[in-house]
Amino acid sequence: MTTFIPLKKNILILTTIIFFLLVNTTYYWEAKLGLFALPVFLLLVFVYIGLGVALVRQIYLLIKDKFAEKKRFFIIGLLITVLVLTFYKPLGIIDFDKLEGVDVLIAEREGAANCLTILKLKEDHTFRERASCFGISVIKGTYTVINDTIYFENIQYGRNKNEFYEFAVIKPSEFTNSKIVADLIKYKNKEDTTGYILWVTKNELNKLKDKKPNR
Questions:
Q1: How many CB atoms within 10 Å of residue 201?
Q2: Amino acid 81: pLDDT
Q3: Helix (H) or strand (E) holding 77
Q4: Do 120 and 152 belong together in one domain?
Q5: 80 and 143 part of one domain
Q6: Terminal CA-CA length for the chain
Q7: Is residue 26 one of the residues assigned to a domain?
Q8: Distances (CA, A) of 192 to 22, 52, 92, 143
């Protein structure tokens, strides 16, 4: 019976490390899952709860054994570290989005069923739009600014996406909300008269040294 105990401990350690790595690299793999993102996130939640139960059990066994087994100290320390960091930083301890450059414009909109779209324009003339609605989709590309119009170029489509807006126009916001500084209306083409509105929460496009991306 005792020969299986080290194996169980090693499995617990390995599971904890894999869980931690998955949580902290979400930025790079979530969009590749598409509709499978939600089940995977739910699975991670169950694993998190399972690790919490394992922590309580390890503490109980440590006390029961009168602190005789030193390896449990490492396991308990590892579990506490991972659980606490994940609780306070559920998207990872490293903000990979910030590493890709400074945001000069952020626009977002929350729709029905808590669907959320966030568009970020970087100072290096790249953009990233993340849409979460029963799955995760990320679209990337470059942009050019001409007056109050933003033109999207070099589009890299996300999973199950094959179209994007050609340009967007910045207009004064129709809402009296201190967090909303303007409206960003995206248009599929020049014939599109409806557009899709995002609410701008940050606009520092005036800080761009150049209005066009370096080619």
A1: 16
A2: 97
A3: helix 71-88
A4: yes
A5: no
A6: 65
A7: yes
A8: 40, 51, 39, 19
Instruction: Supply the range of the domain harboring residue 17.
Output: 2-88
Q: How many Å is the Cα radius of gyration of the chain?
A: 23
Same domain? For 49 and 104 the reply is no
Q: Which two tokens stand for residue 36?
A: 């499978």
The neighbour count for residue 31, using CB atoms within 10 Å, is 22
Sign of the torsion formed by the C-alpha atoms of 47, 48, 52 and 55:
positive
CB 129 within 8 A of CB 118: yes
| Whole-structure pTM value | 0.78
Q: Which residue has the higher pLDDT, 184 or 66?
A: 184
Element (H, E) at 16: helix 5-24
Which among 116, 104, 198, 125 is positioned nearest to 140, based on CA atoms? Answer: 125
DSSP state of 195: -
Q: What is the pLDDT of residue 167?
A: 96
Check whether residue 124 and residue 82 sit in a common domain.
no
- Choose among 150, 152, 113, 109: nearest CA to 131: 109
Q: Which residue bears the tokens 């940050």?
A: 202
Q: What is the pLDDT of residues 140-185, one digit of tens each?
A: 999 999 988 999 999 988 766 678 999 999 998 877 777 899 999 9
118-127 burial, b if ≥16 CB within 10 A, otherwise e? bbbbbbebbb
